[in-house]
Amino acid sequence: MSRLAAAATLAAATTSAVPPESTQQALGYPSLFLLVLIGALVPVVPTGALVSSAAVVAFHQTAPFAMALVFVTASLAAFLGDAALYWLGRRGLRSRGGSRWLEAIRSRAPEERLEQARGKLADHGVAVLVLSRLVPGGRIPVMLACLMAEWPSRRFARGNVAACLAWAATYQVIGIVGGSLFPEPWEGVVVAVVLTVAISAFPGLVRRFR
Predict the structure, then answer these.
(1) Which residues of 170-206 are buried (b: 16+ CB within 10 A; e: fewer)?
(2) Which residues contact 108 (CB under 8 A, 6 or more apart)?
(3) What is the pLDDT of residues 70-128, one digit of tens each?
(4) What are the C-alpha distances in Å from 143 to residues 37, 55, 67, 87, 156?
(5) ∠35-107-31 over CA atoms, to 5°?
(6) Non-local CB neighbours of 50 within 8 Å, separated by 6+ positions
(7) Which carries the bigger pLDDT value, residue 78 or residue 138?
(8) Could you count the other beta carbons within 10 Å of the beta carbon of residue 33?
(9) Residue 143 pLDDT greater than 80, yes or no
(10) What pLDDT is recorded for position 24?
């Protein structure tokens, strides 16, 4: 429910009066970068919905390279956030008493999903890391599996580059689809937010049904 409430708040904020393009660019890209970065460290911010919403707004802009800037901003922020969280996790592993960051990562990775992630990581390596960002709820268990397998930060970073690029591209496509369906940006934002929330909630609903 927290994700749904956050996404609803995002939609309500975006559907208010739309500022001029210059103001959108001056405020939008830094805000997108900061929120995605925070969302990578503390997974309570609906980062997928943010990227899709930003893509909708960029789709309706006349400024050149607007879509490319959304892609670069989102993927770079996601990569830096993941890299920082992984570094904090490795630091916690080397510490005798652990760390609150490492405990936070462990608390978000149920034992069953962690064991699945460790098995897949052992079999398929970096490919699992790349796909983990595209599967709702898959990023943290795979990251913890990489930590437990003692992957060096450099190896994790190499795989995470492709993961963040694929993630940003996927949610940007959702935004483009939403933006192309309606003439007004706010209508496309609502569609994009609903789609991203539905995608995020679907695996959890399947697990509860089972």
Answers:
(1) bbbebbbbbbeeeeebbebbbbbbbbbbebbeeeeee
(2) 43, 140
(3) 999 999 999 999 999 999 998 887 776 557 778 888 888 888 888 999 999 988 888 99
(4) 16, 27, 29, 11, 9
(5) 0
(6) 10, 32, 35, 36, 39, 74
(7) 78
(8) 18
(9) yes
(10) 56
**Per residue, what are the HEC states of the chain?**
CHHHHHHHHHHHHHCCCCCCHHHHHHHHHHHHHHHHHHHHHCCCCCHHHHHHHHHHHHHCCCCCCHHHHHHHHHHHHHHHHHHHHHHHHHHHHHCCCCCHHHHHHHHCCCHHHHHHHHHHHHHHCHHHHHHHCCCCCCHHHHHHHHHHCCCCHHHHHHHHHHHHHHHHHHHHHHHHHHHHHCCCHHHHHHHHHHHHHHHHHHHHHHHHHC
Task: Enumerate the domain spans of the chain.
Answer: 2-209
pLDDT at 12: 47
Q: Kindly state the tokens that stand for 209.
A: 């049904």
Tokens of residue 192, six digits: 């994009």
Which residue reads 């830094």 in tokens?
30
Q: What is the pTM of this model?
A: 0.80
pLDDT of residue 14: 47
Amino acid at 148: M
Q: Which token pair is 40?
A: 């990578």
pLDDT at 203: 57
